[in-house]
Structure formats: C-alpha cells, structure tokens
Model the fold of this input.
Amino acid sequence: MALFRRAVVAVGVASIVATVLRLRGSGGTPPQYGGWRELSGPDLE
Amino acid sequence: MRILLVGAGAVGARAARQLVEAGDVEEVFVSDLDAARRAAVVQATGDKATDVGNDREVEADAVLLAGPVGSHAAEAARHVAAGRTVVSTSDSISDVQALLDLDGAARERSVALVVGAAFSPGYSCVLARHAAAGFDEVAEVHIARSGTGGPACARHHHASLTGRGLDWRDGEWQRRPAGSGRELCWFPDPIGAEDCYRAELPDALLLQPLFSGASRVTARLAATRRDRLSAHLPMLRKPHPEGLVGAVRVEVRGRRNGQTEVRVLGALDRPAVAAGAVAALATRWAVDGRLPPGAQGLGALAEPVPFLVALATVGIKAAVFEGGS
Done:
C-alpha cells in the first residue's frame, strides 16, 4: 500500500512538473524595431 | 461560367458572395446537407445563386469544395473523373495528401485541381512565392497562422493541436508532436506577437515541391496556454459562428546577390472572409485556364502578383514586415 501511495505521489508530482514546463515561458524575443507596411506600388510589380 | 459550391458554412457563404459579384460567373449552385444554411446563403447572395439541395451532379464548369474536412478527396475524384475543375479549401493533411495523389487523374483529364485554396494554406502559398521572388536560393520557408474561420474550422484547429505536425527538414519529412516547437511569431497589428506551435497543418506539403532546394519548410499555429492544455479535451467553449480576426505570416530565408536575406510577408483579416475570397478567385482563375492542369496548391500560379493584386481589390491586402531584432 505504501508503495502504491508513493507511486501515485510520484506520478502526480511528475504531471505537475510536466504541465508547468509545458505552459511556462515564451517562444522567443519580439523584434526590437520596425513594423508592418502594406504592400503597394513597386512591391507588387 | 457556372460553379457548384459544396458547403455553405462560413467560408462557403463568403465564397458564394464573391462569386456572384464576379461578372464572369453566370450561376452558382449551392449544395449543403443543411437546408437552412443553404437557403440562407442563396437568399443573401441574390439571383445568380440556386439551391440544389444535396445534388452534387449538376452541370457546372467547376466545383468549389468548402465543406468540412475529411470528404474532399472522394468528392474531388468524382468530379475530376467527370472532367470538371475542382478547388478545395481543406486544410487537413490527409485531405491534402489524397488530393495531391489525384494529380495523374487531373492531368489525364487536363483539368486543374487546386488544393488548399483558403487563407492558410492558399493565400500563404501565394505570399511565399512572392516573398521568394528575387532570391537566388531559398533555404527556409516558415508559415504561421493565427485565428479560425467558422465553427468547423475552429473544431479542426482545436483537434490539430493533438496530432502530429508535418515539417520538411534536411531532405526528409518529419512528424513531430503537435503543441511542440514553440516559437514567438510577430503577426500584423493588432494581433502582434503570439506563441506558435507545431500542429497538423498541410502547408509544408504544398510548399516543399515549389522550394525543392530549401532545407526547412515548416508550419506553425498560434495557440494559447489554454488551447494546449485543453487540446485533448472537447472544446471548452462554443466556437464563434463567424470566427474573429486572424492572420498569416510567411518568412522566407535565403540568399540574394551573395548575401543572406530574410523576407517576412503577412496579412490580417477574418479567416473565413479571406478564405472565401481566395477560393472564389482561385475557382475563376482555374476555369479561365490561369492555373495549369494537375493537382497543386496556389503556389503553382505562374505569376503570384496579379493574384495578390486581384485580392487586394476586394480588401485582402498583404503587408511586409520591415524591422528586426
């Protein structure tokens, strides 16, 4: 029974750690300057 | 020309609107299993639209498949065998692969089978072609998309985060778990920066043949933490009936005049509206013979610029990102 409880606790802790690792942080750094400009004129030739 | 529209959902309704407004379209036959949806589209689009129930065998010059994913290949095979031009808006990997497999049959009948003619894939493929213009060598093509069209698209978007993404990397296809490969992508304003992940998206399948020298062709889908956490569960909220604002972003890396260069193009719109406009224009161009016979994506257009210009006249406008880190 103790072994079973330990296994349940280990699986629970692993799940929490995996969820935190999956959800935390961000995928990179945004551009520091610049922006979007609509294509027009020479861009579409 | 006479067009059979199969599917009167968010994308189909927008495509019908674009088709009836085109001078060269004489009639649009609207087919859908849902009688109320069919009737609503016919009523909203006027005299050129005809409700044909669930009849898929009416005499038409082209068939625009805008129904839910999963059934496009079987339907396309039947119409191609009958010698009709077919345009599909499906963004399912299995649909796209099965449609591309119909290339031989389409060539034999000398008809165009346009695969993935929506916002992404579709408009994204045309942007990729335009972004790559002038490059001596294209090394990488990366597509990212944000937002969904109608409810069917939203459900597919939700499911696509549980499957396996498909990327081209170093000369071979790689299937990696959807929801992995986080990357911050900067979409046109007001969407801005969003985390994007691998998902079951077919863009690489359509783009790799066009950029056979590229070492990487990838596609990513913008998703929130909640999307990723709940991807394996049923959708927690009912999808928006029309979808909200979405965007596509295309990044092409390569060499020009001996220098490494990166070009980023994008577009912002409601995905169902943009997908409908792209599908309608692709259908008209395919009937006009402006797309070659065979099964291919919109990247196969001989000249992408006139297509972008034509879409800009109906409000679907491309933008370029100028800046850096």
Observations:
- The first strand of chain A starts at residue 33 and ends at 38.
- The mean pLDDT of chain A is 80.
